[in-house]
Specification:
This protein has 302 residues and is of the alpha/beta class. The chain has helices at residues 7-19, 22-29, 33-47, 63-91, 103-120, 134-139, 172-177, 184-187, 228-236, 246-255, 284-300; strands at residues 52-54, 59-61, 95-101, 124-130, 144-148, 156-170, 193-195, 205-210, 213-218, 223-225, 242-245, 259-260, 267-277. Strands 3, 4, 5, 6, 11, 12 and 13 form a seven-stranded mixed β-sheet that branches.
Length: 302
């Protein structure tokens, strides 16, 4: 063992020198005087040289002690600085967080969530990416992701955020041009705008529910898109009907820009989750972001 391997022995030696006596150093370090004496002897044994000469009145550093003191003080200073940085990381929200989401949700709701979190914690910086492959993003080093749908994998923890409610909507202009859309047996033949992802039901079939009743029918979409924001724009233009999430169209429904088709019917809600890698210890900033996002999105998806 090197004389630099045990910081306790180094701290004992430096405290004795800085305090002027073993008894004073023992009080400072809150150990007994015999304990401190044994630690000094152990250090001198490792150094194979005396570091302090003691007599009945005072103590003196040997030449070896003078040389050793500067190195010991420098090493202890580095250790104290490292510990301080660790504590600051533990107790102050600062540093970078890598987050991912699907593009539509990320560009709207998640972006507002992130802005709110940074405003409350100015020392944090967040990088937002987009992906429909959450496990890939976790493997790439992202700290957390906000996803729609169920994700079960032993490499991640998934915390529920609630459900994404979805229902069919159309523009008033479209409704005015097509009679009979207040009946579910009439909507199958209308112009539909569909989402291409099979994760959300696919582009060739619509499944609606009303209480315990389920209605399933095939559609021939006039437009297929990978994102719900582009679908909403097409619906606003009066192109057709689309099943869209409530978080995306709520303001349009309030303003009257869009209306619900068959208000008693809705598509199956999708679970929303925040996912993060299985780790024994997450940085405080990431844990705080996960808690903040959970409360924020449960309110949005109420």
């Amino acid at each position: 063992m090197s004389m630099f391997d045990d910081l306790t022995l180094l701290r004992a030696f430096v405290s004795i020198v800085e305090s002027g006596s073993i008894s004073a150093a023992a009080r400072k370090l809150r150990v007994t005087q015999p304990t401190l004496s044994r630690q000094l002897r152990a250090l001198e044994a490792q150094c194979a040289a005396p570091l302090i000469r003691r007599d009945t009145h005072r103590m003196h550093l040997t030449d070896a002690g003078h040389r050793f003191l500067a190195d010991a003080q420098a090493l202890l200073s580095l250790a104290d600085e490292a510990q301080q940085r660790f504590r600051e990381d533990e107790h102050a929200l600062a540093g970078n967080i890598r987050v991912f989401s699907t593009i539509d949700f990320g560009q709207s709701v998640v972006s507002r969530l992130i802005a709110s979190f940074i405003q409350a914690n100015p020392g944090v910086r967040i990088e937002l990416g987009y992906s429909n492959r959450p496990l890939h993003m976790i493997e790439e080093g992202c700290d957390a992701g906000i996803v729609a749908g169920t994700l079960a994998d032993e490499r991640v923890v998934a915390r529920s955020l609630g459900e994404i409610r979805r229902f069919p909507v159309a523009a008033p202009s479209f409704m005015a041009r097509h009679a009979g859309l207040n009946r579910i047996d009439k909507v199958a033949g209308a112009a539909w705008i569909a989402l291409s992802s099979s994760q959300f039901g696919g582009a060739k079939e619509v499944v609606l529910n009303s209480g315990a009743t389920e209605q399933r029918f095939s559609i021939d979409p006039v437009m297929i898109s990978e994102g719900v924001t582009s679908m909403r724009e097409a619906v606003r233009m009066g192109l057709g009907i689309a099943v869209l999430p409530q978080w995306l169209v709520e303001e349009d429904l309030i303003s009257g820009r869009l209306v619900r088709i068959l208000p008693k019917w809705h598509a199956k809600p999708l679970p929303a989750q925040i996912v993060y890698p299985v780790q024994r210890r997450l940085p405080l900033r990431v844990r705080a972001f996960i808690d903040f996002a959970t409360e924020y999105l449960r309110t949005v998806l109420k």
